[in-house]
Each structure stands twice: as C-alpha cells, then as structure tokens.
Amino acid sequence: MSYRDRVKAPGPKKILALDGGGIRGMMTVEILAGIEEMLRKALGRGDDFVLADYFDYVAGTSTGAIIATCVSLGMPVAKIRDFYIDSGKEMFDKAFILKRFRYKYEDEKLSDMLRGVVGDKTTFGDDKLKTLLLIIMRNATTDSPWPLSNNPGAKYNAPERGDCNLNLPLWQLVRASTAAPVYFPPEVIRLKDHEFIFVDGGVTTYNNPAFMAFLMATVEPYNLGWPAGEDKMLIVSVGTGTSPNANKDLNPDEMNLLYNASSIPSALMFAALNEQDFLCRSFGKCLVGDVLDREIGNMIGKKGPEPNKLFTYMRYNAELTIEGLAALSLPDIKPKNVQQLDSVEYITDLQRIGRAVAAKKLNIDHFQSFLK
C-alpha cells in the first residue's frame, strides 16, 4: 500500500507524531521500538511487520522528521536505530573554527547520510512512501511555519503546478526541517522561480506536530477531510524529553541581556511544546500522558471544550531532570548529559530512557479500539 491508498481507505485513521530534539530522537526510536513490537504481537504479525503497516499518517519535526520519513518509507525501527547509532556522531560534525560564529556543525555529512537513507532521487511524492507524511519546517524567507504534507489533494501538490511540492527531493525537505539555528546552516530550496531559505521546524510552535497533524487531516482547506471522533482517529505522540529549567534561587538582578538571550528561546519552545500537547489532551480523549502542571494534571478522563472528543490521544515522553529520571528508575543518569540536542556521547543513556518510558507506559489495552 502506498500513501495514496491511505487517503480513501476505510476504517479509523491512525496518526503518529514525533517531536524534534536533536540526538534525543534516540529516545523516540526506543519508544517506537516498543510500540512496534507490542503491535506486532497484538496483531499476530511476523517479523516483517513495521509501523508503516499500522499508521496512516506520520508527522515529524527536525529529528522527528528524520524518523517519520524512515517510518513512512517502511523501515523497521531496528534499522532506524542502527542509523542513529552508526551516524549520530557524524551528524554533528564540527564546523571550521571561523564558521562557528554562524553555526556549530557542518551539514555536508548530514546531507550525505540523508541521501543515503532516504534516496538521492526519492521525491516527496514518491510511491515508496507507504503513509502520508507531514514535515514541519520554518521558511525564514517568508518568516512563516511551513508544514508540508504529501497529501495528493493539497493545494500546492497539484501535479500541474510548476512549483508542485511533491516533486521536491525528500532528503532536502528533511534536511531543512533539521536545520536548527546555531547548530546547522540553513537549507536553500528552489520552488519554480523562487529560492527560499528554510530552518528547523523546531523554532515554530510545532516542535510537537501532533495537533497540526490533526488539523491537516481534518480541516477543509487541507483537502483530506478524515472524520474526527474518539473511535475514528488515533493520535500517538512521542517526545524527546523535556528539561524545564526551574530555579527557585533566581535573582532578578541575574536576568540581564545574556541571561535573556540564552533562556528565552528555550522557554518559548517549552511553552509551545506544552501548548500543543495540552490542545491534544483537551480536544482528544487522553489515555496516556504525564502531568502537564499541578492545576490541570494529565487531563486523563477530563472534559474539554467539546462535548465529544475528536480523537483518542496518547503522549509518551520523559522529564530529563533528577526527579524525572528517578521516576524511571534511572537515578544514575545525569540530567546535564542528556538534555542537550547534541549529546552524542550519551546515546546509550538516551536509549535507556526511551526503553524505560516504553516499559513503564506502553499498554496494549490503550490501542484496543484501533486493532481491528
């Protein structure tokens, strides 16, 4: 089955959404490994079963876009894991010293690796893709988020258009979504007569792309029109860990220009991440998810603004703090070692966190309504 077959296929729709987070995507991979194995057993499938056999639409931002693309291409999670383990350190190839005023890492090796795993000639509309795919980027030229889907009915995917998005190289779109400012140089993509500069989708409000995926699957202008309902749509959202920088001893005098420049971007990203998660829990029937804050809790079993929930929702993530790691029975892992986007020396620890999340939070009973 190709992604085009998914558009009109009968039955409930299942969406997988993957956050951005640099090498912390290794956590995501291990959680997905748990989901893949759990579904394989529940569905009575063989070793050839992959997540693309189950999910209809996969969305990803930044490192999540890499993983989402691999899933959509039908790769088993074991192969995605090997890619991250074998290539993780090379992805973060230090830039020449004079270039580090602009970015920390070169992009040539990352681009080559993406060509290798995705295919140099594979386009966004290639029938190799087994699911619908959503990649979140930010267009720096137009100063706007660019959520790109390979939905054949989307306005800018019409084949007669000279700037049809489906003709774009898939590896380049993924590279654009991973072009984190400060870390990597931007990606320039040509669309017909125009060149646009793209950077990491994580600097939009959609580093967690779950709610955007829901909107693109259901809202009329996106021309997909899947029906909503807690028995008609499942959204599984997987994070790369959070690391709230609480500081009870903070002094107002410390909040100078340098402090604000270093703390405000991460604060805004953390707030946006939580907002997208909260929207999903408010409009969806939340079955799994950590506490968002002490007032609203985890929203499991709570009412939202609509009398009927619009989808079933599961959120798998971990808090990369002393308390959060202890709750996963991983007190030996130091938070500072796993909180950075380029913590390539601690891939093994990130794997342990992902496996611990899977072991503690995955429950096949949550998927029962979507196993038919």
Describe this structure in words.
It is a single chain. This protein has 372 residues and is an alpha/beta fold. It has a single domain (3-246, 254-367), classed as Cytosolic phospholipase A2 catalytic domain. It is 35% helix and 15% strand. It is built from eleven helices and eleven strands. Strands 1, 2, 5, 6, 7, 8, 9, 10 and 11 form a nine-stranded mixed β-sheet that branches. β7 and β8 (194-200) form a beta hairpin. α2 runs antiparallel to α4, α4 (77-91) packs antiparallel against α5 (108-118) and α5 (108-118) crosses α6. The two termini are 17 Å apart. The model is unreliable at 95-103 (pLDDT under 50).
Q: Supply Rg.
A: 20 Å
Distance between the termini: 17 Å
Can you count the helices?
11
Strand content: 15-25%
Label the overall shape.
Answer: globular
What name is given to the CATH topology? Cytosolic phospholipase A2 catalytic domain
Short overview:
With 372 residues, the chain is α/β, with parallel strands linked by helices.
Topology at a glance:
Blueprint: H1 3-8, E1 13-18, H2 25-42, E2 57-61, H3 63-72, H4 77-91, E3 93-94, E4 105-106, H5 108-118, E5 132-139, E6 144-149, H6 170-177, E7 187-191, E8 194-200, H7 210-218, E9 233-238, H8 257-283, E10 285-288, E11 312-316, H9 322-327, H10 335-338, H11 347-361
Parallel strand pairs: 1-2, 1-9, 2-5, 9-11, 10-11
Antiparallel strand pairs: 3-4, 5-6, 5-8, 7-8
Helix pairs in contact: 2-4, 2-11, 4-5, 5-6
